[in-house]
């Protein structure tokens, strides 16, 4: 099985279904970055927008609704359950946003050209970054722009790495962080991000650090780390005793983030822009 097929299997299996189940919580957690992207569309006023790795469609629908249907918005994601949820979201919101199932890095857009491409943490998983961003540039109008958010270094995002660090001594197959490799923190290195975009033919690349506060109900914390991230796909396959030990260790590791009835942390990312 190739890396890409493995990723497709995960996002069409437990990982994708977990994100659908948790979409209300994650919409709240990631809302500051949604605001950044929507504001960017307000500045540039594109006519056609592609949302890369759109997930359950929060960003796509928000952009389309912000422009009251005057903008063509297309969301694309490899996950069938997440795209199904995105289409339901659009229907409920009265949005005309369009959603497609596919890998944006290889998808045949049929000659369609976009004025802007955006992504809220959806571009770090391509198997071949340069090839994917070159392909996306080919689907961009000559004057078009790219804007995405990507996580900075894992050490700057301790909340998101706590579960893996706490579970690693007990669960040997916890995936290790590999710098510059496809995954959540693939774009942690600013120079790497700028270099690959330039190699893919993009111009005027800017990579600006952004920090936002994470806050959500502490009662949702266990739901968060048992369904999402590295633990989500692994926990169901652990035997009962090991699962209990892992949950005890991970729960204790998250205690420093709990402030009364709220879980709080800093979210550190890059806001990246480039021109075709």
From TrEMBL:
Keyword vocabulary terms for this entry: Methyltransferase, S-adenosyl-L-methionine, Transferase
Keyword Cell inner membrane attached: no
Gene Ontology molecular functions: methyltransferase activity
GO process annotations (BP): methylation
Methyltransferase domain boundaries: 49-144
CDD domains: AdoMet_MTases (cd02440)
Keyword Cell wall biogenesis/degradation: no
Protein name per Swiss-Prot or TrEMBL: Methyltransferase domain-containing protein
